[in-house]
Amino acid sequence: MNSITHELNGVLVKQRVTDGYINATALAKAYEAATGTRKDVRNWLLTERAKAYIEYLSAKTEIHVLELVQVKKGGNVSGTWIHPKLAIPFATWLSIEFEFQVSEWVEEWLATGAIKAEHLQVRLSGKSTRRQLTDAIKSYIDRHPELSENSRHWLFVNISQRVSLMVFGRKTNKLAEDLNISKERLRDALTGNNGDTGW
């Protein structure tokens, strides 16, 4: 798991790079280290305000309530992980200082980590599908030898754009812009582990 590690009152608080989720269990431990007072994330989750916020966030993001709060057991990822938009109200429940600190983390992640995370998600989600679809395009073109070289190129480029739209939700030029890379480097940026772009 790729994560950002924040140090707070001698406690390491992890935040996942891919989705910004923060380990609320570690955050509560950092609060206890600072104040000597124990506040448990489970107690906050039982408050009416937290329940209402989770329902509202679920409706707005279309993320199921059970996915907004994730309990992980074992290893270095154990604890209760909460959506970044939940981390701020949880931190508010802890203290003003924690609210400020967590809002800084979330803003920083949105400014930097979210872009890297989107790039990673694009690569992972499109790797296998992209190869299958581009192979189908090549196969179609190969079955039509009567097509001129210009027609073959036009077909491949235009169908590839539609594939990109289906797989990534945007055309290749928009995808390159969103990832802040040149269109020429897009294939390299989306290359799978085996070095095969599938384009």
TrEMBL record:
Could you tell me which SUPFAM superfamilies the record lists for this protein?
DNA-binding domain of Mlu1-box binding protein MBP1
The answer, when asked if DNA-binding is one of the entry's keywords, is yes
Q: Annotated Gene Ontology MF terms? A: DNA binding
Q: Which UniProt keywords apply?
A: DNA-binding
Cross-referenced InterPro entries: HTH_APSES_sf, KilA/APSES_HTH, KilA_N
> Which organism is this entry from?
Crinalium epipsammum PCC 9333
Q: What is this protein called?
A: KilA, /APSES-type HTH DNA-binding domain protein
Q: Where is the KilA-N domain?
A: 2-109
